[in-house]
Amino acid sequence: MRFLINPHYKREVGEDINKLKTNLINKYLAIESTKDTFDIIYEEITCYDLNQKKLTKSILKDITGLSYATIKLYLKEYPCLNEAFLQVNNLSGTSAQELTRYYNRKKISKVANCTF
After folding, report:
1. Given CB 3.0 to 4.6 Å as the disulfide criterion, which of 8, 26, 35, 93 pairs with 54?
2. 90 to 26, 97, 110: CA distances (angstroms)
């Protein structure tokens, strides 16, 4: 970054210093923004109350204030986030949701064991 502001920097032919400068600045700003968004999503996943509704991407979107597409992108891009999300997703839910899940699993296993 310093070489872009340095008045003694020898440019190559056809090199645009302003374009290089804006590209580098945007790159570093994007890195900081990405880290902040990652931290927000990770914090909300880890602090989610497991006795509430089952954690879904839509609920995570509402809690964090980020878009649904951003949530999907970060869960796809960062395996550690996705793993944490899936664990909280499986462990969270109200008692009615857990009973429904249990009933559906039993129903599926009965159908799978049935022979024709």
Report:
1. 93
2. 38, 11, 22
pTM more than 0.70: no
Give per-residue pLDDT as tens, 4-43.
Answer: 566 676 667 777 777 878 888 888 888 888 999 999 999 9
H helices of 1-116, in order, are 2-5, 17-46, 57-64, 68-77, 79-91, 95-113
DSSP 3-state of 20: helix
Structure tokens, 30: 């994007």
- One-letter amino acid for residue 77 of the chain: E
Nearest to 88 by CA among 40, 41, 49: 49
Residue 55 makes CB contacts below 8 A (sequence gap 6+) with: 45, 48, 85, 88, 89, 92
- The pair of structure tokens assigned to 73 is 């992108």
Contact 92, 48 (CB under 8 A): yes
